[in-house]
Records
---
Amino acid sequence: MTFNSRRLFGLAALSAMISVGFGAFAAHGLSDPQAQGWLRTGANYQLAHALAVFVTLSAAFSSNRSSRWAAVFFLGGSVLFSGSLYAMALGAPRWLGEITPIGGFGFIAGWALLAWSAFRSPAKPM
């Protein structure tokens, strides 16, 4: 397998998408606190390093329409996911938490679009 910028960018996007999934599983799918901690730690580090790959490759990758839509999903996900959590932490009604998963879907959709965009773009030499 050759590691050109297109493939590395796509793999980093998939890695970030997986980290969001494991973070959600830690929060909702496990009752063992130690296992939750391990998954949270793994998801945090995986996401941080996926972002490090994006920063490293940013100069070598051109944007396109799919990338712009990914940004829209990321921003929308941030508003819905983080915004609902912040609001509840500041005293908003708990029913607002029903909006949170929609934001999580926005994050996952954004990462999926970014991966798709990277894998369909022409390869660039490293």
---
Amino acid sequence: MKSTATLILRGKKYDVKAGSTLLSALNKLEILPESVICVRNGDLITEDTLIEAGETIKLVSVISGG
């Protein structure tokens, strides 16, 4: 069984360790948590969510302006 999950940001795939929190994975990839919205199976998830083996999480860039 796979012990990793996949994060996708702007078409690029990142393999991350399953069992860690989403926040931990984002920090290791040097992605600012406040710069992305995280979506798993069509549902928004928070950065304290545990990453499960074999899953895919899409990271959608947040754009702000003024």
---
Amino acid sequence: MLHIINKSPSSSNALANCLRLAADGDAILLIEDGVLAALVNTNLKHLTPATLKKYTFFVLKPDIEARGIIDNILPAIKLIDYDGFVELTLQYHPIQSWS
């Protein structure tokens, strides 16, 4: 399953709710303000080492670049472009958007 998160964890429970219901091996894509969850130096502890191993995390590179935080992303999270986004939607079924 592909989970898409588009809200910052500081303003929404979307990521926390997703992590509570996601299954081992699911993919989680952070887009829009959801990319803020991927920051290395965040006080929000949603993306623990155990969580990063349990799921495959992706972040949309254009959204990271737009926010000027590309150098501060957790190394375990894979950066993808729009083509990669499309590939994920073809690879994972079903797709759940969280906001």
---
Amino acid sequence: MAQAADSAPAFDFPSIDGGKYNTADWRGKPVLVVNTASMCGYTPQYTDLQALSDHYGDKAVVLAVPSDDFNQELADDAAVKEFCELNYNITLPMTTIEHVAKGAVHPFYAWVKEQSGFVPGWNFNKVLIGPDGQIVKSWGSNAQPLGAIKDQIDALLAAQG
């Protein structure tokens, strides 16, 4: 059963730049959460994730969550930040390295599993949160950010009027 928007859970993510992100601050916007890795065959998706972020501006959020759960992330947050900035000009919000599928899983990913059964099976899995803070849809690594995912975000924005 879906929760009402005012009872949707909020999650804190530590920012790779210091400080934190709280998903409640993004209520009213679609939020695409993507578990990322720097040394993966899917890493070039950063280009399209940044393009999505640029395209939507303040109408939607693309949040990158680096993870080493599949042993393809760099050693520390500073290395990840530098890699993403130098290779992909990343300016979209990015968290510190987090567990998404193994070990002490971040509370957001534990909630996603509880609500939908979805657990990232690899890097660059995507979870779309609607403007009400609830899960809309999830995709695996092969889903391209500028394809069906963009279409789903466009539909959410169109429904808002």
